[in-house]
Amino acid sequence: MTVLDTVxxxxxxxxxxxKQHAAPGDAGNGLSLNDLAKKSGVPExxxxxxxxxxxxxxxxxxxxxxxxxxxxxxxxxxxRRLQSGGMTLAEIEYQFAQHGGQRGPAIAPExxxxxxxxxxxTVQVRDGLSPWRIKxxxxxxxxxxxxxxxxxxxxENGDD
Amino acid sequence: xxSTTFGPRVSRRRQDMQLAMQxxxxxxxxLPVGARLWVRHEFQCxxxxxxxxxxxxxxxxxxxLRRFRISGDGxxxxxxxxxxxxxxxxxxxxxxxxxxxxxxxxxxxxxxxLSVGNIRPNEKVVVLLELLSGIELHxxxxxxxxxxxxxPSYHPKARVVEAEPGLGEMELPENDFGxxxxxxxxxxxxxxxxxxxxxxxxxxxxxxxxxxxxxxxxVEGERDQIRRVSLARSSDLPDRDLVLDVRFADVKTTVLxxxxxxxxxxxxxxxxxxxxxxxxSRPRRLVILLDRSGSMTGTxxxxxxxxIEACLGVLDGHDEFGLVTFSDGTEVFRDHLEGASAEHRQAxxxxxxxxxxxxxxxxxxxxxxAARLLAQEDTDSDRAASGDILIITDGQVFGTExxxxxxxxxxxxxxxxxxxSARQHRFLAQLASQTGGVSRFLTPAERVDLxxxxxxxxxxxPVAQNVSVVVGGIEGARIAPEPAKHVFSSTPxxxxxxxxxxxxxxxxxxxQGGTPAGERTFNxxxxxxxxxxxxxxxxGARIISEFExxxxxxxxxxxxxxxxxxxxxLRQLSLEYGLASSQVSLVAVVKRSGxxxxxxxxxxxxxxxMPADMLFESVFTSPMSxxxxxxxxxxxxxxxxxxxxxxxxxxxxxxxxxxxxEAASVPAQNADDLLMNxxxxxxxxxxxxxxxxxxxxxxxxxxLLFFYEHGNTATAGTFRMHVEKLIQxxxxxxxxxxxxxxxSAALRTLELIKMGQPIHCSWEQFVTLIVQSKGLDTSExxxxxxxxxxxxxxxxxxxx
Lengths: 160, 800
Prior knowledge:
The complex is a heterodimer of chains A (about 160) and B (about 800).
Chain A lengths: L1 H6 L25 H8 L3 H9 L7 E3 L2 E3 L2 H15 L4 H11 L12 E7 L2 E6 L4 H29 L1
Antiparallel strand pairs in A: 1-2, 3-4
Chain B lengths: L20 E11 L2 E11 L6 E8 L5 E9 L2 E4 L1 E4 H13 L3 E7 L4 E9 L4 E10 L2 E3 L2 E6 L12 E6 L2 E5 L2 H4 L6 E3 L7 E8 L5 E5 L5 E4 L6 E5 L10 E7 L5 E6 L5 E7 L13 E7 L7 H15 L6 E7 L3 E3 L5 E2 L2 H12 L9 H13 L12 E6 L6 H9 L4 E7 L2 H14 L3 E4 L6 H10 L6 E8 L5 E2 L13 E7 L4 E9 L5 E8 L5 H18 L8 H21 L6 E7 L11 E4 L1 E3 L6 H4 L14 H15 L22 H9 L13 H17 L10 H10 L2 H4 L4 H16 L8 H8 L6 H16 L7
Parallel strand pairs in B: 1-15, 3-35, 14-36, 22-23, 22-26, 26-27, 27-28
Antiparallel strand pairs in B: 1-2, 2-9, 3-8, 4-5, 4-9, 6-34, 7-8, 7-34, 10-11, 11-19, 12-13, 13-14, 15-18, 16-19, 17-18, 20-21, 21-31, 23-24, 23-25, 29-32, 30-31, 32-33
Helix pairs in contact in B: 3-4, 3-8, 3-13, 6-7, 9-10, 13-18, 14-15, 14-18, 17-19
């Protein structure tokens, strides 16, 4: 059901923390923090914040000091993508930790609300969605409900 | 720092405090035209690796940063003003070099980040930040407000989450807020950094009273001297703003002036509204706009409703009113303005009864709807103004520049009664001043209804209109920023200006619309005086703050050009006054021996306490792993409930997480409640209700005596308009219909009230009966009036 697909978040990124302290020989053609900021469009201070939260690995140590790679760039882009999908940094951090096999910063149950839109169909919606997300869901669920109601009507008419 | 005991507190849990920021201490001077403040931030690294600490705070009203000094073991360095791009580069270069670097950047809504990077393990660093701030001025005093915390506010695209148990995080969209980091919000502030303050009051005259509705304070010094106000205890929690109220001994005009270090003339003048004559009596067109968003839940909404009833009570038959509420959308009482007849007021009461709190704070929608009501064709050509809007709100919104930008073009006058934090104070003060209105702000612990009635009494009928202020004496002298065009009762006119070097200036103020229209001229002497530098900075902060409010996000090419123009002007102003703005930041880099290049300090965002009046759960309701947004505000959750309920009709789904908090009941009636309730009962003819003529007059006189007993006259007090209307109702013609002895008693009582003669007696029992609709015992009432008159007229109980 497409409606449900739109509701469920299944995007995650695994951060391999073992690469946070790569061997010196691995570096050489890396990016500086300033380069990384320019390429990603994310300010240096924010990148340091991501590193502090474990959202992207720390720099590699090369001959010229700290260096960053395409992996860092991809990591930042992933974080941004997840943020634009409505997740907070804390949630991303938690998901990364879970899928990376590490203990997350907090464990709490997800809260979903179930809506019965027909006798035989329910839709589950995660609580605490944004207003624009709710608007989007509103029209999608209303369409589905109308479609199901029409199906029921035609079945009832057919039975007659 | 005068407090020797101030410093990091011991955790309530008796654990070692591992705080990146250990304390915040406010010092400075409060003047009659603003405040010059110094905030001392003490940072410490308790970790094995260097840290970068980010402290986020909101600027108060008409405020900006001037400079900071960063100091530590063996160093002290002053900040430089740089364009925001250059400052960021300097900061980042410093961080990359391993140097201690600090950056203060201002974002939208006056939100500010103070970043200090590369604090070494076990190192202590102090940042002393200077800022200039405005104050809320009344004719007879001032209210000073400083934010020690930051209230999470509504933004349709905000993301919020409870990141750890009891610790909330909020993120704002980068398109509008750049790389701003908001603080973490702690449910329990007891383990956070300590806050304290010690401020000088230099009001230039006697102070009658100094008080704080938020903190226990100690006041030192004689009332006619400079007084020091400090926190009575050794330190406090960062979970509420500091509010100080100062009452002046006299209502008078204040002029401050001097020559600054470059020889330039600087001056500021405060003219109380009483300088402009009395309030002209003419019909009013008013729309009351009520914020019913989720954050207004409980007592604020209940009291606001009561205030509106009382406000409607002082409208007369010639006045027209409208009533609009807003949250996610808007609701109107009627789609046109109504005359304030008994029938319409009763209908308005019913409309109000049904209003509940819930949803977001789409303030502009409400303002637009209110403006549409006022914009409808006005058939009375005698009216002086198209009308006024009184908004009662907690103003818990981010992205306020967009609201201001849109309201400014509407040509409406907005008066604001704000509740809650200093950040909203900044926005609502701008909303009022930029539309020609006035504003008042309350702390959550204060009543909403009484100030609403007080504010309502002064709006709609400015005591002066088309105020023009001209400064002469030398070419090049100017007034800036532009002062208010209208003056309202209780709120003074504030004027700032400057001039080339000279000995004296002439300030000429002319106005219309008051009673009488008139003008006043002041000579302003200019001599070398340190106050001139402070006046220059306060003037700059006011101008910059006003320009900041014009930085609404641009969409089309024309607005983008305007945006760039404002940005350019802000850069110029910052350099002219030596003050920071959103375009110019403060930066300092300290090179120390042993700096390690390319180390990455761990970033630590300083937590603040959830404002004491806000439930942590009302914002951070979602569990950790569920993506949450501004919708998590209880109101918005309620909004989603409404949507599903309306669209899909599944009422059973309302329960559980979609449940809306029950509104708290209003406490039992005290004298203030009685005043409020009785004020809301006034009929359009100005009298109290009453089935027979004699009863109506007795009820009206009892109410009048009760208002008078509580310090209200026809010209002073919150209920001055009610007193004025009751006196107007109790005409000689009406009183003639009473029995002769009662007529005589009523006339003598009115005479005493008009003369301001004290009448020492409690009328509460009678007004209680009226309010409870139990019926006044007129015989008992008149007996009491007679006996009191006898005592007063014989001089037995005259006040000494």
